[in-house]
Every structure is written in structure tokens, then in C-alpha cells.
Amino acid sequence: MRTTTPMDRLMSVLDQSLRTVWSAHHASRPTPRPDPEQEAGAPELGEAERRLSGALMRVNHVGEVCAQALYTAQALATRDERLSEQLEEASREETDHLAWTEQRLKELGDRPSLLNPLWYAGAFAIGWGAARLGDRASLGFVIETERQVEQHLDGHLQRLPAHDHASRAIVAQMRDDEIRHAEAAQAAGGIRPPLPARWLMRAAAKVMTATAHRL
């Protein structure tokens, strides 16, 4: 059996990065859908509601692009094989989120962010830097990131049009997955970042979400 070399891993990461930013994605799980009767009885979205749902789902799509970058960088940087596998498993679930949000954007007649390459590069650098601080700090970064994403998705569930059941079903499942990822990172020994770091993470997230809402 051929041994995987650092160059193999680097080429794999490059391939995954290009696919994340430029390719269409395919989920391993079915797209979450509301109850058929509930969906059938819902009125059509008005133009303003469609634009709002599209903007919120674009922000969610950007978040999943960033999640791919974070997990990929952290998995590459760690020397712990089990941790690498855990991060790669979480990354695969985030790929489902990418596919779901892409599909919903198309259904809404909207598009992903034009700045996805920039978001990916920035998140990859942050993930790599967090991983270089050690595995416990890296896992702690996952915990804080997922908790902030959970709060962000809760906010979207409050803002999405009440009868946009299709978007709401996707966001609710994404939130449940993020909660599970945070719990897994905590169980693996992660420690939360210091308060100033959490503030910086929130500030960076606000810049990203505000920009992606429009671009």
C-alpha cells in the first residue's frame, strides 16, 4: 500500500479548495424538506420576501464555504490522525450544507457570493493559524465557531419569511448539525478561546455576513 506523502495531502487540499469555491456540490443526505402539506398550503413568496430569503441563504452558503476552509486547514495542520479524521468527517457534513444552500439559492433565483474565493482564503488562513496553536486550541476554535454559527442560524430562523418553509427546514437542520459538531469538539478536549479572541471572531463574522448579504 502506497504511503500518503505531504505532497499528496497538499494536492488533495488544493483539489478540495478548488472544488469548494468553483464546483457544484452533491449532498450525501437528502435535502431537508418541510411537511408536504405545510409546503403545499403556503403562499408563494413575494418579490421582497424572495430577495430576503435569497440574501440570507447566500450568507449561509458563505458560512459553509468558510467552514470547509477552516476544517480543511485544521485537518491538514494537525498531527493527530484521529483528530484529522474527526475534522474531515465534519467537513463532509458541511458539504451537505453547501449543496443544500446552493440548491435553495437556485430555487429562489439567486446566486452565491461573488467573493467566495476571498472568504475561503481568509478562513483557511485562520484555520491554519488556530491549528498551529495546538490541538486543544484548534478544537476550541471549532467550539466557538460552531456556537456562533448556531446563534447566527437562530437569527435567520427568526428573519426568514414565516411561510418560506423550504429555507427554514434547511437552516434548522444545519443548526442541529453545528450543535453536534461543537459538542464533539468539546468532548475531544477543546478549550474555548479567550474572550478577546471571541470578540474578534464575532467582529469578523459581522463583516462577512454584512458583505455577503449584498455580494
From TrEMBL:
Q: What is its EC number?
A: 1.14.99.60
**CDD domains from the entry?**
DMQH
Swiss-Prot/TrEMBL cofactor(s) = Fe cation
Q: Which keywords fit this entry according to its UniProt record?
A: Cell membrane, Iron, Membrane, Metal-binding, Monooxygenase, Oxidoreductase, Ubiquinone, Ubiquinone biosynthesis
Q: Which GO terms describe its molecular function?
A: monooxygenase activity
Q: Which InterPro entries match?
A: COQ7_proteobact, Ferritin-like, Ferritin-like_SF, Ubq_synth_Coq7
The UniProt family comment states: Belongs to the COQ7 family.
**What is the official name of this protein in its record?**
3-demethoxyubiquinol 3-hydroxylase
**Organism of this sequence:** Sphaerotilus uruguayifluvii
Cite the source lineage: Bacteria, Pseudomonadati, Pseudomonadota, Betaproteobacteria, Burkholderiales
